[in-house]
Amino acid sequence: MKKILFFTITSLALILSACAPATASNGDMPMNNDNSGMADGTPTPGSMMMENPEAAHMMEPITAPNVQPATEADGGQPLEYRLEDGVKVFELTTKAVQWEILDGVTVTAFTYNGTVPGPMIRVTEGDQVRVIVKNELPDPTTIHWHGVEVPNAMDGVPGVTQDPIQPGETFTYEFTAKPAGTFMYHSHYEGDVQVGAGLYAPFIIDPKEPDANPPVVDKTLMISEWRMTDGQTYAAMPMSGMEPNYFTINGKSFPATETITVKKGDLVRLRFIAIGQFIHPMHLHGVPFRIVATDGHPVPEVAQLTKDTVSVAPGERYDIEFVATETGQWMLHCHILHHTTNDNVEPGGLMLMIEVVE
Ligand SMILES: [Cu+2]
User: Fold this and answer.
1) How far lies 29's CA from each of 33, 39, 148, in Å?
2) Rounded CA separation 79/33 (Å)
């Protein structure tokens, strides 16, 4: 029955596309070669763009006037703050840069302070935090503090809790940092585009009472995807024609990903944050790990799962811990194996090495 229905719809689409007069062409918008956009019965970006200028805008390449190469090589680095009357004041500027994800592969990215991910904001539970955001993008933007319990007016939803921050404008967010855990901040304006284009960063709130058994190594890994075609960068989307062909951990594809060096016997904590639009089952070689926190919230010890693979869906965070018991180079990688390629070539993408030394 399904086959007959599919055949009927496909045939109808082909007949309709063959009969349609060639009046739908729009000189400004890229289109599929066949102009129908329905060659296999599936609407593709080309056909949608012709019909809907807003969709066309969402699927345009990431561009900005006069984009310069990034001056920093590493994303997610701690952001300095100044203290003003007991408030920790951070400054962010949104801007487009050319960001190298891999030797010879550079994307046009929308960033906080010129890096992908943006700088890590790391504070202690109960801190009063002020973040001054200057928008130097060609488009409006807002910031959402994902998982942080902020007052409603600080939630960063355009048209709901605030007006979008227009290009050239500045907006100030202020809230108390709570609860403790692994969080993030990201754009909430045209998120389908701006988040994939690089507007995301870690936000870590350390507990007021320090950890009784703190990890020796504590790394945050933000996972996302990109689409690069003909030298143009697109925000990768889970739709035909917009799928990613590059995958990054902290803004880098393997082998440009960071190697994490740890000493044998060290307790290691990795904080996975998925901020793209795809699920990534992250698999660790060598030893199993415990899931000690989900979405920033501690898991009671009796409820902690021991696993070697954890699927991290968009928006989720998993903090995992393990003791490195054997020396050697141990892989950590996504187990959707296409995600360990660079433009379809293996190895690449979502892989990194954990080097355990004596
Ligand atoms: Cu994956």
Assistant:
1) 12, 19, 40
2) 46
340 alpha carbon to ligand 1 midpoint, in Å?
A: 7
Q: Mean pLDDT over all residues of the chain?
A: 89
Four-residue CA torsion sign, 161, 167, 170, 173? positive
Confidence (pLDDT) at 10:
41
Least Cα distance to 226 among 252, 261, 207 occurs for 252
The three-state secondary structure class of 225 is strand
Q: Which residues pair with residue 88 across a beta bridge?
A: 83, 129
The sign one gets for the Cα dihedral 189, 195, 197, 199 is: positive
3-state helix, strand, coil in the chain (%, to 5): 15, 40, 45
How far does the centroid of ligand 1 lie from the alpha carbon of residue 319, in Å? 17
249 CA to centre of ligand 1 in angstroms: 10
Chain centroid to CA 181: how far? 18
CA of 138 to the centre of ligand 1 (A): 31
CATH 2.60.40.420 positions along the chain are 68-206, 217-357
Which pLDDT does position 49 carry in this prediction?
61
What average pLDDT does range 174-197 have in this prediction?
97
The residues whose Cβ lies within 5 A of ligand 1, an ion, are 280, 334, 336, 339
Measured in Å, residue 225 CA sits from the centre of ligand 1 at 9
Give per-residue pLDDT as tens, 250-301.
Answer: 999 999 999 999 999 999 999 999 999 999 999 999 999 999 999 999 999 9
Calculate how far, in angstroms, residue 194's C-alpha sits from the geometric centre of ligand 1.
20
* Residue of 116, 164, 161, 119 whose CA lies nearest to 275: 116
Task: Dig out the tokens for 193 from the structure.
Answer: 């585009």
The CATH H-level superfamily of 68-206 is Cupredoxins -  blue copper proteins (2.60.40.420)
Question: Which amino acid does the sequence have at 6?
Answer: F
Residue 135 CA to residue 155 CA, distance in Å, equals 17
State the Cα–Cα distance between residues 296 and 283, nearest whole angstrom.
20
CATH for 217-357 is 2.60.40.420
How far is residue 110's CA from residue 144's CA, in Å, rounded to a whole number? Answer: 16
Å from CA of 55 to ligand 1 middle:
26
